[in-house]
Specification:
mainly alpha
Length: about 120
């Protein structure tokens, strides 16, 4: 759940900077030199997405299932999972666009479409 939500949040931050003319490489360097550093920024975004490799190794369908179960259990327990629920919607959108058997990282493509920008090595 945290990796899925973190991928969405970090991708949004990078796309925000890209829209302002910064390179995705530079933004990731800044994130990875700060407290924003995470497995997602160091391994998924820097090592894969920058090179347009959407192959982290965890299927989108499985991330959807995990997020769906997490949100359902949280609701049953009366615990708010607002960010998780929003992330789940983005993974659902990626699935609706045909990415069910693809890697979970295709969710980045949904964010790129919305931002009109791409996370790619310069």
């Amino acid at each position: 759940m945290i990796v899925g939500a973190n991928l969405v949040a970090a991708s949004e931050a990078i796309l925000f900077g890209v829209r302002f003319g910064l390179s995705a490489d530079a933004i990731l360097d800044m994130l990875n030199a700060s407290t924003a550093r995470s497995f997602v920024t160091e391994s998924i975004l820097a090592d894969r997405i920058l090179d347009r490799r959407f192959d982290f190794g965890f299927r989108l369908e499985l991330m959807r299932k995990d997020l769906r179960l997490c949100v359902a259990e949280a609701e049953a327990a009366g615990a708010p999972m607002l960010i998780c629920a929003l992330a789940k919607q983005l993974y659902e959108l990626a699935h609706a666009h045909g990415g069910g058997q693809d890697d979970m990282t295709v969710v980045v493509k949904e964010l790129e479409r919305a931002a009109g920008a791409e996370i790619a090595r310069s």
